[in-house]
Amino acid sequence: MGAECCGQREVQSPGPDVPGAERLWQVKQLQLAAVAAVLLGAGWLIGLGGAEYVGVGFELAAAVAGAATFVPESLRNLVRRRVGVGTLMTIAAIGAVALGQIAEAAMLGVLFSIAEGLEHYAIARTRRGLRALLGLVPPTASVLRDGSEVRVSPDDLVVGDRMLLRPGERAATDGVIRSGRTSLDLSAITGESVPVEAGPGDSVHAGAINGGGAVEVDVSAPASDSSLARIVHIVEEAQDRKGRGQRLADRIASPLVPGIMVLAVLIAALGVVLGEPLVWIERALVVLVAASPCALAISVPLTVVAAVGAASRTGALVKGGAALEELGRIGTVAVDKTGTLTRNKPRVVEIVPANGTTDTEVLAVAVALEARSEHPLARAILDATDGVPAVADEVTAIPGRGLHGQLNGSQLRLGKPGWITPGQLASEVERLQQDGATVVLVERDDVLLGAIAVRDDLRDEAVETVQQMRGLGIDTAMLTGDNTRTATALARQAGISAVHAELLPEDKARLLSSLSNGRKIAMVGDGVNDAPALATADVGIAMGAMGTDVAIETADVALMGEDLRHLPQLLAHARHARNVMLQNVGLSLAIITALIPLAAFGVLGLAAVVFVHELAEVLVIGNAIRAARARPLPEVAAVQPVVVGKPTNRGNDDGCCDAC
User: Fold this and answer.
1) Model pTM?
2) Which fold has domain 347-455?
């Protein structure tokens, strides 16, 4: 532990060869502590038998064995002019031996080594769960090369290889299905229990289990750079990032160590003045141990390691202690509509013709304008027609309004009501919008042809998610570029308490401060379109970010799966972890505050202080491990939403065509 207890060492990720990474009895510090305890017990028994000098020799050997876990590192840190907790323990151990309290010095070494060993084991245990994700990659993969099937190591896969994935097998790396249809089990990666149907053109992520028929998959990334490998790498880096609580512990511990040494010198000097130098020197040594801030220094980092690692195993990437702490303080969550509250699979639900036209004619004109668009709602319009569509010429997007172009000498327009006058369809447009659909109007040569209603249905779990967040005392608001009626209808279905519609991306970012009401606010979006709001929020959460580099790298938190229920689970988990941090910091400071005066005035001796202090450290470690446990969510009844205000901004419709 030594100086590193005061934040002078980054917690390293134990690999398979690191002692303590597998079994408790393999931890080096605990092995030495056991040896020291046996020697100390033998010395005590031999001393009782009358061989006093032999017993002292065993006790001295016990002190050396116990001190071997921290004295060498402390001396190396002294050479580097770094003073830490190990320095205090080293001085106390040497001083105790010099004063003839060899048994007490040995006890200090035993208990300190046990606490240090438990810390290393606890870190290894939580990291081991994260590294186990890489165990989802099979040892070999079937590849079709030169017309034959061969088995190769995942490390030998190259981009362009074609993997053969049979039923029940796991994908060795990322790829795209070339042929065949199947269902993919992603539960170990994203935490979602429902298999995902997949066919040609769909992505397959490393670690996914093929639950259906055999498929051929074109490799899109080497195993070392697969989505699974990136997740592990990012979370391991995130676990080492310091949150506010961790920095607070560092700020307290760093000046505390030299302050304790100064206090010990003053206590020893007081003994000289009072004429009892040996008594007060002994008390000074006890104060060094009593005021050791080791429990304080490890309290938050160990909690972060446990909590972040546990979150990653349920499909949530938390980018370090700072993000974890902020998540634990969230009081308001703002959510994007399209792709977050909705399924992001829009479909045409109704076509309303006008002026003697037909559904087919209205749809044909809309398809001609949207033919080259990749927007989700444009795709919905294209999917609603059969055959090869005609393509309009000179198609131009009018930001915030719609599209216009030419076809066979006619001028075509498609856009939102207001840019195109709904005329005789005004009541129909209002009805469709109140039903939660996004409506676009189609016009040819200034004659209204009809309206097309497209709806992106609410996720099945959206209502339950909003209720669970309400049970956590967290307010929910919807921010969307869609029109007010559509947004209101979806909010009513979901139980959202506040709706802000017709917003530009920058409008969403500006609204966050007023929505928070002085509380911490999180923004949940797709990680790309909502970038300004994600960056402005106290915590930006990217939804459905599995395999998406931009979302994983830019967001503070990335939910890898598509199940929205992971959001309240993560918020409850972070809140629990933050409470554990505060408990650990409070306990550590209370122990130090109580032990210093008791040690300074001789109420407690070295052995008692060592026992109490190291017991407190064990309690802090055990409490930190609790941060890895899942917390049950409250069950609450649904309530009707209240739509707050009428937005004044009219901007890009995140549920409409490209230009809407």
Assistant:
1) 0.68
2) Calcium-transporting ATPase, cytoplasmic domain N (3.40.1110)
